[in-house]
Amino acid sequence: MAMELCLPPSASALSESLRDLGYSLETAIADIVDNSISANSTEVSIFCFLNSKEPQLAIIDNGCGMSSEELIGAMKHGSRNPNDLRGENDLGRFGLGLKTASFSQCRQLTVLTKKDDAVSAAQWDLDIVDERDEWIISILDQDDISDLGFEDSLGKNGTVVIWRKLDRLFETLIGETRDSLVNEKLAILGKHLSLVFHRFLTNDDNIKTKIKIKINGHQITAFDPFCRKIKATQMMPEEKVIVENNIVTIQPYILPHHSKLTAAEYEFYQNRSDFISNQGAYIYRNGRLMAWGDWFRMIAKGESTKLARVQIDFNNNLDEDWTIDIKKSRASPPKQVRERMRQILNKIINRSTDVHRRRGKKLFDESSCPLWERYAEADNIHYEINAQHPLILSLIENPNNKVNQKFILNAISASLPLEMIYSDFSLSPKEMLTPKIDDKELTSSLDRFKELLVINGNIDAEQYKSLVLSTGLFNGKEAAIDDYINKEFYE
Using an 8 Å Cβ cutoff, are 158 and 58 in contact? Predict the structure, then answer.
């Protein structure tokens, strides 16, 4: 009969390993904010004290706080079973976030909490854990609590998470270089929190908890990835999928063309969101953004889907189905959701591309005599300069007027139909053609090209070939060009 042996892990080795789960500063603090929301906080303040005797970062909330017994439970690694049922406001899962998120940035974690005016505090110090290889936690007394200096920041209820020994945050840097690095990270943190918690920061009817988040006293504003305040944003029909008796909601959006944004709106969104990389599904669990910018390998990211976003909402009963990770930065949709997504993707792609096509078509329609003309035949699309445009006719009739030539060339460049070309490339890249010289006209065209170049001085064979190929008119004719050059330049 097999013998049972209890084999607990090394406290020192495991605690150091847990530091490398892949948290960044912004994902670590977002995990702490989750706890604040679960505690019904309405305000979360983040302070980074770089000039104090011992640099520290503090996250303060006005939530319900914890009793001393609840605090000890919260400080325990794996304090809850991820399969347990939780309240609809609960954003946790594994009972690891507070510890793993904190240790990813610091070596000393202190939690000060107040519930009904009763104060308690506990502290993890990884240096002590390493030295003694034991899961030892310090329960602070009143003198220790007073020394922390944060008790007055709490009302009747609330919690302060304090990070000290900030080795990961500082990256071994000191002085002004260190401060500059931290300020950069705090700027990234603000953008991250404004996106991840944007539905908690605004009046979203589906989110019961409303919060304010401040970083060093500055309140952050929500960043809505769907541009819902912009009238030109298109909201497509909502879809619902049932997964294990739970409703998953799928809401597609098509962002507006940049021409529909004011200068201030464009700058705001462009500074926070790259349209190509951030297209895709936005996964929300209880209103908290978990993962985004991914089509789950159902389609490739490209120009045609650049403006497409899909909001997917599910509750925390489906965590296992979505394979939520500890950092809450990865989610994979269950089969039912994937199948429904595939059904609506073609509609999303067509609508996204249509935004550009309609804009380009409008530019054509608004001009009674465009400088460029688009030809769409059965199997190809190409663009040509309109030879009947008055400016082009003027150029042909008065070829020696250099001032007019320059003006007309600038007009041709400025009127290039970028919107329609973009749309055509997005939908039918293989059908896009460029004008080419017919084989019957090849030799005479090369002669004409040579005559034009010689006007500006002598030109050798290598220069001639480079300039000929630069026009695109002779693409695919390289062998014939070489034969022509051998005959005209070397014989």
Answer: no
Q: Which run of H or E residues covers position 195?
A: helix 175-196
Mean pLDDT to the nearest integer, 340-348: 84
Q: Provide the b/e sequence for 383-392 (b: ≥16 CB within 10 Å).
A: beebeebebb
Q: At what angle do helices 175-196 and 263-272 cross, to 10 degrees?
A: 110
Tokens 């989110």 belong to residue? 207
Name the residue type at position 230.
I
Question: pLDDT at residue 90 above 70?
Answer: no
Query: Is beta strand 246-254 parallel, antiparallel or unpaired with respect to 308-314?
Result: antiparallel
Please give the residue that has the higher pLDDT: either 464 or 76.
76
Q: What contacts 257, CB < 8 A, 6 or more positions away?
A: 232, 307, 355, 356, 359
**Helices and strands, number each (H, E), in the chain:** 17, 16
Asked if 31 and 328 touch (Cβ cutoff 8 Å), the reply is: yes
Reported pTM: 0.74
Residue of 279, 373, 288, 292 lying closest to 330 (CA atoms) = 292
Residue 361's Cβ-count burial label (10 Å; 0-12, 13-18, 19+) is middle
- 3-state secondary structure (DSSP) of residue 242: strand
Alpha helices in 398-477 (DSSP H): 402-414, 418-427, 442-454, 461-470
* Residue showing tokens 């809505």: 224
Q: How confident is the model at residue 246 (pLDDT cuts 50, 70, 90)?
A: confident
The pLDDT value given to residue 36: 94
pLDDT digits (tens, 9 = 90+) for 434-464: 666 666 777 888 888 777 777 666 778 888 8
- Which residue has 């401040």 as its token pair? 214
- In whole angstroms, what separates CA 391 from the centre of its chain? 45
381 within 8 A of 431, measured Cβ to Cβ: yes
DSSP 236: P
Q: Which residues contact 399 (CB under 8 A, 6 or more apart)?
A: 405
Q: Are 89 and 146 contacting, i.e. CB atoms less than 8 angstroms apart?
A: no
CA separation for the pair 225, 273 (Å, rounded):
8
User: Own/partner pairs for 40-44, CB < 8 Å, 24+ apart?
Assistant: 40/64, 40/89, 40/209, 41/158, 41/211, 42/209, 42/210, 42/211, 42/212, 43/211, 43/212, 43/213, 43/214, 44/211, 44/212, 44/213, 44/214
Of 483, 488, 450, 454, give the one whose Cα is nearest residue 468.
450
pLDDT at 81 over 60: no
